[in-house]
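To: structure desk
From: M.T.
Subject: fold request, one chain
Message: Could you run this one when you get a chance? Sequence is below, nothing fancy, just the single chain.
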Amino acid sequence: MGEVNKIAFDKTGTLTYGKLIVEDIVNLSNISNEKFLEIIVSLESKSEHPIGKSILEFAEKNSISNTNVEEFKVLQGKGIEGIISSKKYFLGTEKYLKENFISFDNSMFQKYRNESKLVILLADEENFLDFITLCDTLRENSISTIEELKKLSVEPILLTGDNKISANYFSKKLGIENVKAELLPEEKLNNIKKLKKENVVCMVGDGINDTPALKLSDVSIAMGKFGSDMVIDTADITLISDDISKIPYLKKLSNKTLKTIKFNIAISLIINIVAVFLSTLGLLNPLIGAIIHNAGSLIVILNATLLYDRKFD
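Reply: Done. Structure tokens follow.
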């Protein structure tokens, strides 16, 4: 870690929390906000999708109730539908609503997409009604971690399977210039291969798709709290609490450890060379030689103990 000069990060679950939260509620109909949210929550209460779970968490925090849903259906990758109070509703993607002959202006969503937000639309059988957005959020210490690594002359790199809009949005907030998006696991691996030709590379990740890149990197760090078992088993270092602010500390400690090792070797060599030289001149008897040797060992040990629980400004 002391020689690392490039650190490649996965995005979702590493630099971000990897959990969607409800961000915007946009009501364009004559339905009240309370009714609009009740419809969405009622439909999602039947769903097992992670998006549905995020919406239900939002509903619980905001005391939004749900009502009975009949003829509930899930269309994988598109959305869900169901009948509430004798009226059919569709909740899902733009494509899903258009397949059900519901018209709307796509341009109104571009602003939210540019902010890496997921847009979920609600419509009945006749009209587009409202939409909500969900987004992932940066870990609270992600920005400061990247800034600290730059001060240590380490280049942060983003390697993510997410789309370019999302990757560029978060990389701009983080201050990461080297960004590779829409990567498959083998493409992450190939990027690490290229970096290793002229650099010492560390990879930080949390998912199974990061495993090949983690294995190949010179140093690998796994997110331990929610990371997969395979990733944790593969990694050299595991962040138990998922606190990525520990990474700059690891770098500083490793740098200091390398300096300490070099200093200790130099001190040992100097003491031994001087002792040998003095003994050849007859200026050093065996007793004094033994004392000097042990004193040198003591200096090395004491210097090494300074690394224990070392704090850095």
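Reply (cont.): The mean pLDDT is 88. Let me know if you need anything else for the meeting.
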